[in-house]
Specification:
alpha+beta, four-stranded mixed beta sheet, two-stranded antiparallel ribbon, 21 helices, globular
């Protein structure tokens, strides 16, 4: 056994004997706002602001519209806002719809170690709850950070096998994050917090097979709704198993390959997963971000030679090929996880925004012609945040760019100003005429708000929207 493995062994044993769920629940209850470093608090605001933007952008997407249409038929008391819409729904339905709209363009944040989109399952649950149960902005931000911590640590424990097997990790781990966050916001004790985690475990689901289809974001919506439901049920006394995470038939055993329980509890409260989170610059699968960066670097060197391209070779982490080697996509939704389309769209249009992932762009003749020349390969030793793109033009010249850290990753994070610009762009797309300025200001000042739920009124257009 190596020294590194040996040093981890006592922590795994201790975590298993004490109970992972019990450890998490106790930590959630005793955690205080004062325990959060300033960097963590600020990153929480960045993540929430970003998710308001992606939800505004996706609020009128076809998948979001259909979810809203169906859930409206069964909605209860109108108590929680639907982002980008004038109408309100019951808290559970609003959490679902807002999570779908936040995730539908694949433009929400990403935790690179696990490929989890942390905010979409957690924030909508908390924001819906804040309109139902008054809480301060600090209480919401604190609960949000803890929810992200729980879902990402669970993701760390089962990665990379969980996602590779085909589980949609944002959905499967997101329901735990939403439950933990809601439990904290509700002020549940350790026992009831454990029960909330138990009820979340019974709702953990979602498949990678749905990527590129409308069904992809349904699991994320269910995670937000299910996590909030789990906490509300626990509040009433609905019990759960003693060890829903590390039990013999718990989440880690059933859904992970050789799960590392220590990754869930080690240095809990000392290290923060939200600091390894990233806000995405492009509305597509995160493994494509460095590929697009490389294409943007190469495009000026091509000048007017787009039609002289003979071949484009894309090399990267195995996940790049496994998830995005899709040359024959026909819809914008499928194109979000297509390296061939993404490369062609950037080289031709010099942009990678929502417009480049719409059906008309996907099926334009020039994009179709160029993407047939794009091949995707695995390259040993290239991490998920890196990629290499080589373009061969007529005459044999090869233009190559290697991107070590894609834009938006923790090594090259978007600035606060870039996130604000992203929110404004997405608001123009999904909610034209709505000024997101007051919402942006309120997000940055959320830690000073006495009523966290009031921010949701700023995420809705004027009456008639």
């Amino acid at each position: 056994m190596t020294q590194a493995a040996s040093s981890l062994e006592p922590s795994r044993t201790a975590a298993a004997s004490q109970g992972v769920t019990r450890t998490l629940a106790a930590y959630l209850v005793r955690s205080r706002w004062e325990d959060l470093p300033d960097r963590v608090r600020h990153e929480a605001k960045r993540s929430l602001l970003n998710i308001f933007g992606t939800a505004l952008g996706g609020c009128r997407d076809g998948a979001t519209e259909r979810c809203l249409q169906v859930l409206s038929l069964f909605a209860g008391k109108a108590e929680a806002s639907v982002i980008g819409r004038e109408r309100r729904l019951d808290a559970l339905s609003a959490a679902f719809v807002n999570a779908v709209s936040a995730n539908v363009f694949d433009f929400d944040d990403n935790h690179h170690r696990t490929i989890i989109h942390p905010t979409a399952p957690v924030a909508p649950a908390l924001l819906a709850l804040a309109e139902r149960r008054p809480m301060t902005g600090r209480e919401l931000l604190h609960a949000f950070v803890l929810g992200v911590e729980v879902e990402c640590r669970l993701g760390n424990s089962v990665s990379p096998g969980h996602y590779r097997r085909g589980w949609h990790i944002t959905s499967t781990c997101g329901v735990f994050g939403a439950a933990a966050a809601a439990a904290k916001a509700l002020g549940l004790d350790a026992e009831r917090t454990g029960w909330a985690i138990g009820s979340a475990s019974s709702q953990s689901a979602g498949l990678v097979e749905t990527l590129g289809t409308m069904a992809k974001s349904i699991g994320v919506g269910n995670a937000a709704r299910g996590g909030l439901l789990a906490a509300l049920l626990a509040e009433t006394g609905l019990t759960g198993p003693d060890e829903p995470i590390a039990g013999p038939r718990g989440f880690a055993s059933v859904m992970g390959d050789a799960s590392d329980l220590a990754a869930i509890t080690d240095r809990l409260g000392e290290t923060w997963e939200i600091l390894t989170n990233s806000q995405k610059p492009y509305p597509c699968g995160v493994v494509l971000n460095p590929v697009l960066d490389a294409c943007f670097e190469l495009r000026p060197r091509l000048a007017s030679s787009i039609d002289r391209i003979v071949k484009v070779r894309v090399e990267g982490h195995p996940l790049l090929r496994e998830r995005t080697d899709r040359p024959d996509v026909t819809t914008g939704r499928e194109a979000q996880v297509s390296a061939q389309h993404s490369v062609a769209a950037v080289l031709i249009h010099g942009a990678a925004g929502v417009a480049q992932y719409q059906d008309d762009c996907v099926n334009s003749p020039d994009v179709l012609a160029l993407r047939r020349k794009v091949e995707v390969r695995e390259a040993a030793g290239i991490p998920v945040e890196s990629a290499r793109v080589a373009i061969t033009v007529e005459g044999g010249e090869v233009l190559t760019v290697t991107v070590e850290h894609g834009r938006g990753t923790p090594a090259r994070p978007l600035t606060d100003a870039e996130i604000e610009a992203k929110v404004r762009d997405l608001a123009r797309h999904g909610c034209p005429g709505h000024d997101p300025g007051p919402l942006i200001d309120a997000a940055w000042a959320l830690d000073r708000a006495t009523d966290a739920g009031a921010i949701m009124a700023l995420a809705r257009p004027p009456e008639g929207g």
